[in-house]
Design goal:
Helix content is 47%, strand content 13%. The strands form 2 sheets. The protein has a 6-stranded antiparallel β-sheet with strand order 3-6-2-1-4-5.
Length: 399
């Protein structure tokens, strides 16, 4: 055999013999990477378990309904909480007999014996007019007093805040003697309903001044925007269902905290981004011209109310209260429309800039302003009334 042929054969044999070695090397490195990845997962899982991590449930606020007929008609109830993060909540009330109904965050009944799982509460007690307000005596306010209606939705109502610490009560305390601030607000009201309720209240009690606390979801929505809002709530529901599956004990050593963390984080990010986009689109003329046209009309009608001066206060959404606040353009649009209608406007955003939004939430689930948020707003409104609208503080004249 020629030398050249022998040399070629040896080279081929050497190359053939190195291929399995290379495969083994690649497999070994791949196995090492996978093993390292598994070790990291185990370490993270153990760390999460040792730290007691559990994703926040969006259903952790329970509800206690009194079964007394009078209180049911008024719409009284309690919100129940696991913890008291800002000291706003109160201990559970004394329960008498079986005259109570306990509902979980999903709306399903719970045995009353489980009430100790939510030892903190906020009471919502309403007047005969269905308002979170004291009963008022007679048509006119006391002599020498100016009655100011604080009109709005859940922000003015004080969702998650005791009545004594809500915006109306805090504003009344800031203004001092001579001012009576009446809460005309309810969770879920929009500007149309708020205007209707103010007219109803004024039939029962004289009210010559009104502050409308405007929140960015107070305007009419197109069908598409309404459906998007429903879809956001459905995603929140799906998030809870997903977490329930991870909590179901399908894992050999119990439910995976890491899977819960990943699932909750992805779902929360998606809901947050869709919510931000939804708020922006509500004030985009190309996507909600009907709602914006109606808002302009409603503001003009408020400016023309007889025997009642109206002012507008814009309350910011409690998110990203810095230079990147995502709804600045919407604030500016509402302020421009109100000013054009002849209404005085106070935008509360500058009062909240630089604040840590989470420190102003009711709790990790409820992003409504807590008592500190209400106090900041009340102080700013009181200062504004004294400096820019002193006529709001003049006693009502009896005709």
């Amino acid at each position: 055999m020629p030398p050249s042929q022998t040399s070629t054969q040896r080279t081929d044999n050497a190359q053939t013999s190195t291929k399995p070695a290379r495969r083994r090397g690649l497999l070994f490195r791949l196995a090492a990477v996978l093993l390292g990845f598994l070790v990291v997962l185990v370490v993270v899982e153990v760390g999460l378990r040792l730290s007691g991590y559990a994703p926040v449930s969006l259903r952790n606020i329970w509800r206690l309904n009194p079964l007394d007929e009078t209180r049911q008609q008024r719409g009284d109830y309690y919100s129940l909480y696991e913890e008291n993060p800002h000291g706003d909540f109160e201990p559970l009330p004394e329960l008498d007999g079986d005259r109570w109904e306990l509902l979980g965050g999903d709306g399903a009944p719970r045995p009353l014996e489980r009430i100790d799982e939510r030892p903190w509460c906020v009471e919502y007690r309403h007047s005969s007019l269905g308002l979170r307000e004291r009963e008022l005596d007679g048509y006119w306010p006391p002599p020498g007093t100016t009655r100011i209606a604080c009109v709005g939705d859940s922000f003015a109502y004080g969702q998650g805040v005791p009545a004594a610490k809500t915006l109306p009560r805090t504003l009344e305390a800031e203004l001092g003697n001579g001012a009576e601030v009446v809460s005309i607000s309810r969770v879920g009201w929009d500007l149309s309903e708020e205007t209707k309720q103010l007219a109803r209240f004024r039939q029962e009690h004289h009210c010559g001044k009104a502050i409308f606390v405007f929140v960015l979801n107070d305007l009419l929505l197109t069908k598409e925007l309404a459906l998007r809002n429903e879809a956001i709530f459905q995603r929140m529901h799906d998030r809870e269902e997903s977490l329930e599956r991870f909590r179901s004990g399908l894992w050999q050593l119990g439910p995976s905290r890491l899977c819960q963390l990943i699932s909750a984080s992805l779902a929360d990010h998606r809901v947050s981004q869709e919510t931000l986009a939804w708020y922006r689109d509500c004030f985009d003329p190309a996507k909600n011209d009907v709602g914006l046209d109606l808002l302009e009309q409603q503001l003009a009608e408020l400016a023309s109310l007889k025997d009642c001066r109206v002012a507008i206060v814009i309350f910011p959404i409690m998110r990203q209260l810095d230079d990147d606040y995502p709804f600045l353009a919407a604030h500016e649009r509402v302020a421009e429309m109100a000013t054009a209608a002849g209404l005085p406007v106070l935008d509360l955003l500058p009062e909240f800039r630089g604040q840590d939004a989470r420190s102003l939430w009711v709790n990790a689930v409820d992003n409504h302003p807590n008592s500190r948020g209400h106090a900041i707003a009340a102080k700013a409104i009181a200062r504004w009334l004294r400096e820019a609208l002193p006529e709001f503080l003049e006693p009502d004249e009896r005709h």
